[in-house]
Structures are given as structure tokens and as C-alpha cells.
Fold these 4 entries.
Entry 1:
Amino acid sequence: MPPAATIKKPFNPLKTVRARVNANDGKIQPDALQDAYNDFNWSGIEIRQALLKLNDRYYFDDKQKNHYYNTKPHAAYPAENTFIDYYRAHNLLDGESVYTHFYIREQQTKVIINSFKELYNVPED
């Protein structure tokens, strides 16, 4: 069942996210990097490749093909217009299914990847 407050499109357009990833204007938080290594044996290179393959179609319309899951306000930046976009992607890269979330702070360009892990380790809300 979809989360109660879900909108059907991410706050941070994937076109913008991809441009920032391609420009190497991103930061993978240490926990996200460690989880990606533990779950997939992936480094930042594979994380970036996976981010470039995400689509922004609403997950609950087709859970096997669609990736965009939810958006929530960033609790650490309540005064800013900063939102975290959540993705759940089956068979995204090398047959792996990924859960990730990231954001771009208002007035900044850097994509901050907060989480990147094996999808089946994360229950649906």
C-alpha cells in the first residue's frame, strides 16, 4: 500500500540529479558507501552508474519496473525547501535490487546520497 502522503513524482527531478552525477557534483555519505560495499561489493563508481539508471515513474503503479517511491521533507533542514526522494528499484544494475534516497539542498547543487542498500533489507512503509 502506498505511503499516505506520497506524491507521484520526485521533488528533485532525475534530469537534474543525472546532470549533477555526471558532473561529479555529489557526495555519498559514509554509511551509504559502506552499505553498498557490504550488500553488493560496490564502490562509488557502481553507485553513480545505478543512480543514472533510475527512472521517476511511480513505484506503486508497477513495482517491478518503476523506481520512484516517496518524498519527505528533510528533518535537518526545516527552514529550507529541501526534500529527500526515495527509490526502490528491482534489477537496476548487474541484476541487483536497490533502495536509495538522496536530496539536493536548497541553494546548492550537490546531490547527497544518504542511503544505498539491498532492496530486500528494507521493508515498505
Note: The chain is about 25% helix and 30% strand.
Entry 2:
Amino acid sequence: MMETNMIPLYVKIIAGVFGLVNTGYGIVGYFQPSHTFENSTEGVDMKGKGARYAAFEYSSRNLAIGMGIVVAVVIGNPLSIALVTLVRALVEIQSILINIALKKFNEGFTTAAVFLAIEIFIMVKMFM
């Protein structure tokens, strides 16, 4: 594990931007819950409470993890950054496995794979 003052600036910037993107994605979900569901809202009734609540829960998770990453980067503790990024990586792994199980290799799969690559990069840099 590296010391707080030894974290490269570019890693802090990448992690911070990544945290802000996750935060923004979570905020958008509160105002546009239909973005949560793939293929627009085909087959999902967004007027019903169940679908809206599911979208809000998904958005709150992204918001909380994104804010956690931002706070960890501001504090600058490498272990904190690595742990919060690991939590986010577990979400991406889950999304990838769901897409594989459904045999859907679409934008959801690609986004999760790209985000997972960024998260792995951040975690590796915290231990090098």
C-alpha cells in the first residue's frame, strides 16, 4: 500500500472523475427513472410505483457509491479509495454476469466492462 502523498495525481483525477460520473448517473436517475431500464422502458410501466421505486433504489446506490469514491479521493487514503472502488467493481461484475446469463452483449455489458477496467486500474495503482 502506498502512502497518501505518493498517490499519482493522474490516479486521483481518474478516480475523482469516475466518482463524479457515478454521482451524476445517480442524480439523473431521480429525474429520469426510465434511463435505468435497458431498451428504453419497453414492457415497463413507469407510471407504477414498483418500477419507479426500483429505479430510485438503483439511482441511490450509484449516488452513494459515487459520493463514497469522491470522499475517498478528497481524503486521499489509498486503502479507502481501493475499498470503495472495490465495492463499485463488485457491482460491475454483477452486471457483467447478469448480461452473460441473459446472453445479452449490448451497451450494458460494454459499459460494465469498461467501468470494471477503470476500477481495476485504480485499485492496482493503489497497491503499486
Note: DSSP finds four helices and no strands in the chain.
Entry 3:
Amino acid sequence: MRAIVSIVVAGIALGLSACSPAKPPVGRWEGSFQSPDTMIVARLKIEKNGAIFLSAPDALNVSTDPDQRAIIRARLAQDLVSSWPLVQPRQMHFNGHIFRYPGRVAPQMKWDASTKTMTVIVYPGTLPEVDIPMHPVTSFSSDPWQN
């Protein structure tokens, strides 16, 4: 009888551990995206307690003039650096691969544990979603474009 109870308890414990929510990766990432008319820089920090700090300033309808683009790149980098201390933590549901806001459908980030690749998904205005490949950093840079 004791053996049966032990097996049942072990089975329940194993079942509950399999149902526990996936833990998000902990770390810091930066990334950027450019197209002929859109520029985005992104900074992400995930803490051990699951708090997510994310900022992704963008510029839409950007000129193709190289001098103007350089000015916009510098402004976005400065916006990212100066606004970072004001970023509030967010909570997201993480299923082991996709991050979503609670009760929402649209994915906000993707994590590939096998390659340790993080992607931030941005929805700029009426444009289609933009996937921003992120790279891990030990400390944040003042120039997120250098990736």
C-alpha cells in the first residue's frame, strides 16, 4: 500500500512540475532594424523575478537621405539611452518560446532556447509587424546600431 501511495504522490509531483510555467531567460539584449522608411532600436532586460524591461523607440516615414538617416539614428540612440531609467517593468506570459501580454494574442517576443536567440516583435503604427533580432550584452551600449 505504501508503495502505491508513493508512486501516486511521485506521479502527482511530476505532473505538477510539468505544468509549471516556463521560466523566461534572464539577461540583457539590444537590437536594431532599418528599412528604407523605418528605423527602430530596442533594448531588453529580463530579471530573475520575470520582470521585463523593454524599450523600442522608432522613426517612421524616414528619408532615404544618408545625412538625415544619420541624424535620426543618433536621435533614436539618444532617446533609448535617456528614456531607459524611466522604463517600467512589464509582466508577460511566457510559454517557453513566445512572450505575450496577459490576456492578449499578439506575440511580443520570441525566444529560441536551442540557439539562445531573442527576437523582439514591434508593431509600428499601421505597418506590418517587425521582427528585431536581438544580441545579448553584458551592459547596454550608448550606440545600439553597432550590432
Note: Residues 2-19 form the longest helix (18 residues).
Entry 4:
Amino acid sequence: MSHDQRPARMRVVADANASRGNAVDTSAEQQAKPGPPAAAAPAGLPVVPALVFVIACVIGGGAVTYLLAGAH
């Protein structure tokens, strides 16, 4: 390994989290009990966006076919 490809030395840090002041969070928000769960999303796939996607695919396929085969 040549000199310019030698890996640089790594500096050892004792405790990075403690030096930033966020080692332990004892705030009231952190210790509070969780509330009731949020309302669940409706089951099943949304139909309208799926239909729009399929229609857009058909239109795009027709446009590609027209441009490649029919515009001569």
C-alpha cells in the first residue's frame, strides 16, 4: 500500500453523547405514559388512485405505440 492510500488514524472519543448533553433525558414528556392509539386507517386499497394509475398506464402505452409504430 502506498503512502497516499494509507488509512488515516481514528481519534477515540470517550463518550460523545455525554459531551453533547443528551445522554439522559429526564423531562416530563419523556417519562409520560403513552395515550390511546390513533384511529386506524380504513382497510383495503384506495380504488380511485388505482384506477387513475391504470388509465394513465393505458394512455402512456398507447402514446408510446403511436410514437414508435404509428407516426411514420
Note: The mean pLDDT is 76.
